[in-house]
Amino acid sequence: MEHNKFATKIGVQEFNFYYGNFQALRDVNISIPENQITSIIGPSGCGKSTFLRSFNRMNDLIPTVKTTGKITLDQYDIKELDPVELRKIIGMVFQRPNPFPKSIFDNIAFGPRVHGINNKQVLSDIVEKSLRQAALWDEVKDDLNKSGLALSGGQQQRLCIARALAVEPEVILMDEPASALDPVATLKIEDLIQQLKEKYTIVIVTHNMQQAARASDFTLFFNMAEDRAGYLVESGDTIKIFTNPKEELTEQYISGRFG
Amino acid sequence: MIAKEIEIKTESVEMNTDIKHRKRIGKLFLILIIIATLIGLVMLTVLLVDIAVKGADWLSPQLFTNYHSRKPEKAGMKSAIVGSIIVMGLTGLFSFPIGVGAALYLEEYAEKNLLTRFINININNLAGVPSIVYGMLGLVVFGRMFGAFSADSWLVTTFNLPIGETALGGLEFDLFGLSFLHLKFPFGRSLLAGALTMTLLILPVVIISSREAIRAVPNSIRLASYGLGATKWQTISRQVLPIAMPGILTGIILALSRAIGETAPLIIMGAFTYVPFLPESVWDQFTVMPIQIYNWITLPQEDYRIHLAAAGILVLLAVLLSFNAIAVFVRKKLEIKW
Amino acid sequence: MKTRKRTRFYSEKFISAILFACGIFSVLITIGIIFSLFSEAVQFFLRPEVSLLKFFTGTTWRPLASKVSPDNFGVLPLITGTVMIALISASIAVPLGLGSAIFLSEYASERLRSVLKPLTEILAGIPSVVYGYFAISFITPLIQTIFETWLGIDVSFFNALSASIVLAVMIIPTVASISEDAIRSVPQSLRAGAYSLGATRFEVITKVILPAALSGILAAFILAISRAVGETMAVTIAAGATPRVTFNPLESVQTMTAFIVQVSFGDAPSGSINGQSIFAVGATLFLMTFIMNVISDLIMNKFREVYE
Predict the structure, then answer these.
(1) Regarding the domain with residue range C70-307, which homologous superfamily does it belong to in the CATH classification?
(2) Given an 8 Å threshold on Cβ–Cβ distance, is B6 in contact with A135?
(3) What is the reported pLDDT for B96?
(4) Among A28, A108, B57, C101, which residue has the least CB neighbours within 10 Å?
């Protein structure tokens, strides 16, 4: 399904996902638009996070995983890219903030260091740039040697976002990034995501429908079939999905009648 | 508001993903740690092969039927084998009630107070004390009993005890006048002293493993029992203990299998190396397999220090292996899987 | 009905008292150890032929010398023998044990792990006297070949290196087990974060996991040294009976434990100076291992606090 207005950043064709013998995702076909915020919504257990993790091949770390179909990044089949390379281009922010037990500086510098940058000045610049982009610079600039774990929950999540930005990805995946945070921190994160859309393609899994409705441009609605496999019910511009959905199921989910 | 804060100062930096190089380092690392994992196993194999090669020819029935002798062709470890068996039997007998009792107390009765924490820390510490220290403990407490039965001790002079004539003194009598309850104090270099020493050695391990077995019993069983009006001890003795027993037994058997190979504590507390007779009572002198093996290792003749020692080790390892096999058998056959 | 209740009440109390006694018994053991070691050690130090200061600072240990003087009762040779062997064996065991732990927890499949782990545990189950035999039967000739025949360096038959090598093999399972626990305690979320940034497995392990597991690994290292210090038979058989202050592992030395064994084989009467000297040495040994175990435990507790 080609997207008319925007270029396709990530294409998914006939994608099926299995944990061993259990099918978690069935026949997914979708294009993720470039430089837009795409949200993935749906009831618990319908495979949203599994789908998200397939983009940066984090599922490869689980031994019993099998997939069929194709996922492309620009024109590359992601199966043909080295996962190490792929993950530099597609970054990820997790549900619970997971800063390393290192200083703020070392948390952010970890990615660039691993990818070959050792010059102190360059690293310093990267750290500052990433922290500014993540709207955290002013709060931590006085002590970058402080442990990442000493920050508040909201700050830790912004630290993780800065860490992901430091390797200069093109796509950022977010798995319910604000669900573990308080409302004030959540708002800050949402503002931040809006700013990031300028430079990055963002795909965000969320349980919070209001968040999806107000913050994203494009929405995918997944549901769980009777055999517990997840499938794509409907996709489209967020405004259309929330005001005038094509599928009855979508309408029911959005109006809170299940999930 | 946030838009103004973001000032992108630097140009995009070229990040060199020299993936091939990074992966090569990863492969080298993998090779190194595989070697690390295998070195221990290689050593084990070399050890077993070395011992088998040097000792297999000397495995013969006389190892079991003869005592140690000055002629290698006639030497055997009969007294050591019997000594080991008796010591282990007694050790198991002594450590079972105390160890399981302590485990039951800690798991079922003890409250979470300072004393309990102290006991816990203490047991963990005891498990890490070198075995030779237990030998010294046994020597003083059981072997000599602090010298309480020597001629000039406070105990003897105050109560005017009828001690023996020798320099060591010592008190002997029949408890309740029964001849088979003949007691000797101090325990000296006897089987009894040795077994008690080994009991103290394995007690921490027995307590720890028994606790695990007791903890593994689902709490729902206890609740069901209490719900039917049973008392605490009834619940423990009729429900918890039977269910935990396979695990407890496995733990004790494994602890005993470790104890069979222990040499130092028994040497220190006074086991002999040359015992040309079989012990007839717990008060007799004794030796055990590892001490006999050590003795042979230190003899100058090659037949002893290389061959007979290896043969003795093979016997010892065979006994160890069977103990472990029994433990595994007990666990597999009797344990209930929840 | 009422008398049954009462007897049951008292029998329950009685049983709980017995079980409490069993629990307290373990404390008695500790008291017994401390009391027996230190009471005899104190008697040793009270002797005029012995000086406490010279015991800990003197570098000559000749308890059987004809001249019985405090100069011949300096315990440092035994301590250096013990410590040198413990450090060498820990230096060998820790890399090997740690490497094994990394392989088993981060690379190996469950099936491979279920085979390799029990095999490694067997190493810990082999009695010390067997390791002693292996040391002089195989390792020592090997060392002699390497050093004397190939390198032209003198090696005495009884040497510290041979004992250290077999000791290392003996304690590898302990190091591996504790390190593996530490590595597994590092939360999966940290690994996921590191992989998602495009790090290779080697980089995730060396730059994220090992630093995070470091204090657990340190506790394993200290515990390894403590176990090596307390080891008896292997070092008694392989390292020798020559107390000397040296850092050359190719020489013959005597450890504290080996000395205690040596005296126990002789017929030193209980009140004699040698009979008592083993308690002074034993008390020193006990203190050393006790302190190391406590430090290791403290580090481990702090480590667990972070991750649980």
Answers:
(1) MetI-like (1.10.3720.10)
(2) yes
(3) 97
(4) B57
